[in-house]
Sequence to fold (216 residues):
Amino acid sequence: MPLPDHRLIAVEGLPGSGHTEFAAWIGSQPEWYAELEESTDHLPDIERSPLSYVLQRLIGRYERHRSLVDADLFRHRIVTDYTFATHALWAHCILSDHEWALYQKVAVAVVPPTIRPDLVVYFQAPERQVSAILRQRHKGIELDRWLELCRAYQRHFFAYEDSPLLVVRTDGAQWFDGIGPREALWKRIMTYPGGKTYFVGESGLWDGGTPADDGC
Fold:
């Protein structure tokens, strides 16, 4: 059986999960290019003006996603550190009810071309760890909202069926400090035939089932 020909991979997760670090590492591999979003570190608008923040992120994600249409995926292999749909999870969790209603009116008009990744890799880190990182970065937003964001990500990817999905259970970015874990996961990605699978730690792997309840 021939190996999968992945041309577009999306590595998803919340800050602190290690997903952006791994996407950047894939982008350093021969023939690969990383299309990464701006870091959520030190973004004052997320606290001062949450609606402005999520709309800016929405438009930025739209422009990046639309640019993939012009990319020649027969010549370039691209990895992103996001999927388009998760912007709404952030918006719903950090906006007030009134702001969420306004956001929805804008979001229905910001619909990029449909581009489905050949594979989505979701980094599922413990929600207590991720929510603590988010709370430390953005003290103006209640911890409960970050916990809900973690759970929203978990629900979203439990039900995700738009592309083949590999869920990676991690303890955070330090999981990939060594070259061994990165290469082990990369080998698994490049031979991944499809469906939904859960990958735990450096080598534990099983098909089906669900990740632990405290993940996000």
